[in-house]
């Protein structure tokens, strides 16, 4: 959608009313808590009225993770499914939610949404590469009313490196590993009192998890900061990302899995292409002490196209078969893949938004308060097409577009306005934080072609409008030193998912189904403490109750409301640094994160989906654990050994136990993986040498049955050198 002047003017003018409120604030207001340009957590973490986790630079150095997924294993409550190649996409489920494409968890980079389309298609086919990340913020508590649209499964914000402020600074990292993996990342910037500029470049490639899953990515980011005048700062960032891979979205049938778990029979022809450009601009206006107005403008455009030659796995007695071949070609012989066609699915996404936000301190009722007011206008354009052909020429997207009309053509556009307000009351050792968010959303779906036919009937178009008020409140107590007891409740929300694949019976017969937004009530009670020197602990009880959970419909690519469900459990996390306890530079440390999801069940029968009340939610393991032990030497050596455990899961809402020939039904057995890392950073030398390994025991394990059986990554060892200046 183009920028609309009326919307832009409204967004820019609306803060004036908030500013008048700010000017009326008492001159005795306390100093405003620092507002990070890129973070979503405040500096005063003890007052945060909910559960959160920060994966900081220290943790990243210790774990030497291969990708964002390994970096997040140490966060309780997160289930990460390793079905893609080398961290190119994320599948994260929070507290029992379906991890598929991380669709129920808000992903952000420096506060900007990252999905293909945050409202219309919240799929994480892109996430910030770990190479650019300075820290990762994970928020699961009641503070979610400040962000959206997804407020059910929490938020993950990737905070990137800031622009240098004192001369020239940068780094160069070279990494190599097995599976033909290699990566080169360079970062250089210069800055001073008036601001600075920084360039980041990344190239990464390898063979992937399965055979014929080669991939290559490139990313370039330019970031700048300009201190325009006293109290005025401009921050800008532009980015370009490209992925070219042979990743197939189709898994294996049961017989294929027994023959070779890592095969991808049509991988050499299957393709996935993704190109993304992004823009983020921020203006920070420190109006006076304790009053700050920040305005963010963002835009992202993505084009992704996938090609595959197998629709359903295991159709030929547990083996897959080719779907589109010319007459006379045996489509049960996958060796004939070069002679056959396939299915292209090109899609285009564009979204933009503007968000002014006012942070101020005030003395309402004679007590210290910190308030946040803001609004956001957001628009999206989505174009989904599909081309199919039965000859080898259709392996070219350009040929497919020129040879036939789209088999499917769906246009989706979104217009959303969000308004939010939150206030923290400080009452001695107590802080009370009520908040409110209002979402006004219109999603328009227009099915122009489906099953190869054109459609202009009224049922092929749908305007889905809704308004949702989302309250939340949190309470924190800091009566003990370095200890916070917190409790909170908030209304969770996720926009309805538009149908992506439409069945039709002839022209003018397509029907778009209407789903209601997902709504939940999220409770939690917990404590986090670093009361004892060298020891940090956290424990959180949570209970999430859905009024309307959305599940996949009987037809793939459609969505229906599945009624009530409930997830409840306990999260534990801790760290012990014996070096701090005994006052020595030699530090032995232990870290642990554990989740017991003792309840994750449907509360309503659904005969069409084979679901009964009491069935466990799919991809919701009861136990998740990550434990590490390490040693840090004063010379700069850091060595760590760890294990990650995931217990058994169901792959569907019917809780099917018996595996079928397609491999799409059945349980997913438990697995435990061994990992280790070692690094050497001599003091004052500016370089680090590192070596890290994942799945060191080379265990073969199953991670997904969504499109057939998919194996987790085999043993991956990588090492490299990083030089910072």
List the helices and strands and how they pair.
Elements: H1 5-13, H2 15-23, E1 52-55, H3 57-63, H4 68-72, E2 78-80, E3 92-94, E4 106-109, E5 112-113, E6 133-139, E7 155-160, E8 167-177, E9 181-192, E10 195-206, E11 215-229, E12 232-245, H5 254-259, E13 271-288, E14 291-308, E15 342-362, E16 369-389, H6 397-403, E17 408-427, E18 430-450, E19 453-454, E20 461-477, E21 483-494, E22 518-529, E23 535-548, E24 550-552, E25 559-561, E26 565-577, H7 578-582, E27 587-602, E28 623-632, E29 637-646, E30 649-650, E31 667-668, E32 671-680, E33 687-694, E34 702-704, E35 710-711, E36 716-724
Parallel strand pairs: 4-7
Antiparallel strand pairs: 1-6, 2-3, 4-5, 6-7, 8-9, 8-36, 9-10, 10-11, 11-12, 12-13, 13-14, 14-15, 15-16, 16-17, 17-18, 18-19, 18-20, 20-21, 21-22, 22-23, 23-26, 24-25, 26-27, 27-28, 28-29, 29-32, 30-31, 32-33, 33-36, 34-35
Features:
725 residues; mainly beta; 22-stranded antiparallel barrel; 7 helices
Describe the structure.
- There is one protein chain.
- This protein has one domain (5-724): Maltoporin, Chain A (Beta Barrel).
- It is globular.
- A hairpin with a 2-residue loop joins β4 and β5 (112-113).
- It has 7 helices and 36 strands.
- The chain is mainly beta.
- It is a multi-pass membrane protein.
- InterPro entries: Beta-barrel_TonB, Beta-barrel_TonB_sf, Plug_dom, Plug_dom_sf, TonB-dep_rcpt-like.
Give the amount of beta strand, in percent. over 45%
- Class of secondary structure makeup: mainly beta
Described by the principal axes of the CA atoms, the overall outline is globular
Rg, alpha carbons: 26 Å
Gross CATH architecture: Beta Barrel
Helical content (DSSP H or I, runs of 4+): under 10%
Poorly predicted parts: 2-35
Euclidean distance between termini CA atoms? 43 Å
